[in-house]
Amino acid sequence: MTDPIADLLTRIRNALQAGHEELVCPRSKLKVEIVKILEKEGFVANFEEHKDNKQGTLKIYPRYDQGQNPVMRGIKRISKPSRRFYVGKTDIPRVRNGLGIAILTTASGVMTDADARASGVGGEVICHVW
Predict the structure, then answer these.
(1) Is the N end or the C end of the chain the one with fewer CB atoms within 10 Å?
(2) Domain 4-62 falls in which CATH fold?
């Protein structure tokens, strides 16, 4: 697999379309940080890390509203292995006029676009979520 982050985002997108209560994917440090942000922003209800002798797994529980519609309307990979997308601190994008979030990897760690603006750092835009 050449892009494990795209695999995570696709698994989340597919689970939301199918209405699944949970999804399982291979674990990595970057994936854990991305899912922590999604949980903090309210797109994911909860997640669990299951460690084993190998890589481990992540069990993610997507959040749905009262009508069983997914809270996360869309998720899109921006920076890809074939085309990295870096932004400076003044060029951090706004997703859907502030209704969504952009997740960035910076020198200070993985954070949302609002946190990066407040910290005054730029970095690589991983994905947009709305």
Answers:
(1) N
(2) Ribosomal Protein S8; Chain: A, domain 1 (3.30.1370)
